[in-house]
Design brief:
alpha/beta; 13 strands; globular
């Protein structure tokens, strides 16, 4: 079970917030979906996944869910064809210089793992009415924000993880500031952003965020020390 998904669902319930139209980009297997609990509440959901093998599983799993729309594509910087490297939940666009698989697992790109997928701009599927978006596409998250028409209340985005830092973290943070988002909380890989004034962030939550930031910084310092010594 995706503990991050459970946490997001429960924390939004605690805030008495319920989304009406959700999009998840980078689903992997259905049980790993970051929005599965919302889907089970019959909330409208658009699932975007590039790997055709995984899409087959997703379609079978959600056969009886009329509230789910599935799009088989990779979201990137152009419309066309794109090469991806299959690395289970860490499948990524091959041309990226940094992804969790490359940084944390020291994965070496292997031709036998590669496949071609349709590449789209997020604006092609975003009508401007998503109120919660979850983005986990292994280093390409910025390209969702870059072409986003919606300004959802909640954005969950993979920004870090072990030694990995999103290669476009500066652009992501700038976009969030320019569009009036603040950091709500972090888990081991994602940062949850909320639009200002959607709900109150408690002092306890702010302290938790500070502690998590310190933990992430310490882990990265350990990697640097290992390199030196």
């Amino acid at each position: 079970m995706n503990q991050g998904a459970v946490r997001l669902y429960n924390k939004l319930k605690d805030k008495n917030y319920s989304p009406k139209n959700i999009c998840e980009i980078g689903v992997y297997l259905p049980d790993d979906s970051n929005i599965l609990h919302f889907i089970n509440d019959n909330i409208a959901a658009t699932l975007v996944e590039a790997d055709p093998n995984t899409v087959k599983i997703i379609k079978k799993y959600f056969t009886n869910h009329s509230n789910v729309k599935i799009i088989e594509a990779a979201v990137f910087d152009f419309h066309g064809k794109i090469e991806l490297s299959r690395r289970e939940s860490s499948t990524f666009i091959t041309q990226l210089e940094a992804s969790p698989a490359l940084i944390n697992d020291n994965y070496q790109v292997n031709q036998s793992d590669q496949f071609i997928a349709e590449s789209i701009l997020f604006s092609e599927i975003d009508k401007g009415d998503f109120d919660l978006i979850s983005i986990d596409i292994e280093g390409a998250e910025w390209f969702v924000l870059k072409y986003m028409s919606s300004r959802p209340d909640i954005i969950s985005i993979e920004t870090h993880g072990k030694y990995y830092t999103n290669p476009n973290i500066g652009q992501i943070n700038d976009w969030m500031r320019e569009n009036n988002y603040i950091k709500w909380y972090k888990d081991n890989s994602d940062t949850l952003f909320v639009k200002k004034n959607i709900f109150n962030i408690t002092i306890y939550e702010k302290i938790q965020l500070i502690i998590m930031n310190l933990s992430i910084a310490i882990l990265k310092k350990k990697k640097l020390l290992k390199k030196i010594f």
